[in-house]
Amino acid sequence: MEIENEYIELEKAVSRQNGTYSNDKFHVSEKLRKFLIKTGSPLVNYTDNAETNKENKFRMKRTVADFIGRSWTKGIIPYIFSKDLNYSWKSAAIRYMNEWEAVTAYRFVPYTPTVHAQYGLGHNSTLIFVQKSGCWSNLGKSSENTQEISACGGAAAAHEIGHTLGLIHEQNNINRDSYIRINWGNIKGGAGNQFKIASPVNSLSFDYDYNSIMHYGLGDYSSNGLPVMTVLDNKLSYLVSEKYNTDYFYAAYEAQLTLKLNETICKDFTITCHNAGYLSYVDGKCQCRCPFALNPADGCQTLESKNEDLFWPMDSFAFLKPIQGCPKGFTSGSVKRFKDHKGLASTVTSNFHAAGEYTNLTFVREEFCVKDKTLEGSQSEKTKWRPGSYCILRKNGKCPEGFEDGSVNFDDHDELGTTTTLGDLPDGTYVNGTRLEFCCRNDGVHTRPLELPASVPFTLYVGSSGLCQAVKGDYTQ
Ligand SMILES: [Zn+2]
Q1: Is 215 within any annotated ligand binding site?
Q2: Residue 273 and residue 270: Cα distance in Å, rounded?
Q3: What distance in Å separates the CA atoms of residue 62 and residue 166, rounded to the nearest whole number?
Q4: Is 169 annotated as a binding residue?
Q5: 11, 160, 376, 437: which is the annotated catalytic residue?
């Protein structure tokens, strides 16, 4: 488009002057002016923290992002971490890049001087994760060679990466007045722009998603503590506050619109996705992404079958044995060890499902299910442990790919009796105290279900999120 360069120049000028576009401040061609009017206010401040907006850049709406080709070519996003990024921000960035990759065709690739050429991107844009005041991101791919994202340390990173992929805030959705009311009188001075409706150009197919990670909280930007937004159907208000527990269902659809999967990597995909399902790139292949419990294999038209065709990963590992016994193909073992404080019974909660003895006054007996990778058939080779927040027990000296090692030492009271072991056990030491070796990961959110053979019970340990990892199908906590 011929006004593209002019647009880019205008954006730079606006950014330098730290102001928004207005016709008296910036001289633009008639064609660009008409475009700016048609698309609403195209240079919009997309910061998410009004308190600390010194770092703000002026961001563009998604409609404009599409117009000037601001989607990431081939869905590839070269990125780099700035040196000052602390551990918590860096791990959040990794976790939520993984999350977006898990449900979309976007791929975040570490920056190298040759990475743009290697993927044939035709640009040199690189995303830089920085640690600055506020949480903010550019909208879509910038025309500059580098663009910063200050993604913050927690789940906010999912939201900011959403902006990087081109998503606007849900409350700017053109349909929003049918779903929420904006209480303009409660909005903090200067923040009104955050609640303007986006232009109807390239409006989204889905009506409104209260649950979107791109939706502000109802009280954000309040000047007086009263809600800035009110959900018209009050009983649905809870959806907004639980936004980070979603599976990015509609957000992932919207973020991929500019990738045109059906013309690119999924052009040979022939299944039509029904019932609000959509074509996506999940687990490394093109498939329908369906609403909960519908079957991707037939285009979301029937209920998904049980997990009987799932297999355990082709790895060695162990977990606490559930009272129902070990899954097929596992061996079992137990450890009986004496406790340091004689006479104080351990307690277990009423919904404790591990086999063994835990409430004896003098000893505990733990039972384990152990899987040796050599025992499993070749069909399971395709199954891998997925990102999440959970731990398993180590077996055969090495954690499966994606996990980190760790251990727990129990100071057993060996004077009361000798530790006795039976059968097959996880890695550890069982004399002079007990040391259990764990494999843990915290590279995904606990709410995204793992696909494991859940037709029989098994156990996972809680990861550092402190919350139980979801597993597809039946499970207990
Ligand atoms: Zn935002």
Answers
A1: no
A2: 10
A3: 6
A4: yes
A5: 160
Which of the four pLDDT bands, split at 50, 70 and 90, describes residue 16? low
Residue pair 169/214 in contact by the 8 Å Cβ criterion: yes
Q: How far is the centre of ligand 1, averaged over its atoms, from the C-alpha of 110 (Å)?
A: 24
pLDDT (average), residues 252-269: 91
Cβ count within 10 A of residue 83: 7
- For 4-252, CATH gives 3.40.390.10
pTM, 2 dp: 0.65
Specify whether the CB–CB gap between 315 and 400 falls below 8 A.
Answer: yes
User: 157 CA distance to ligand 1 centroid (A)?
Assistant: 10
Mean pLDDT of 323-327: 85
Give the integer Cα–Cα distance in Å for 22 and 25: 6
Residue 318 phi, psi (nearest 5): -150, 160
Among 322, 338, 345, CA closest to 456: 322
For residue 316, give the amino acid letter. Answer: S
pLDDT over 50 (residue 45): no
Which has the minimum average pLDDT: 58-67, 184-193, 331-340, 353-362?
A: 58-67
Q: 367 CA distance to ligand 1 centroid (A)?
A: 48
pLDDT band for position 145 (cuts 50, 70, 90) = very high
Residue 123: closest CA among 157, 147, 139: 147
Residue 446 is assigned to a ligand binding site: no
Q: Which of 217, 197, 190 is nearest to 50 (CA)?
A: 190
Structure tokens at 174: 């053109």
Distance 198 CA to ligand 1 centre (A): 14
Residue 30 is a catalytic residue? no
Q: What is the location of CATH 3.40.390.10 in the chain?
A: 4-252
- CB count, 10 Å around CB of 225? 7
Assigned token pair, 442: 């915290």
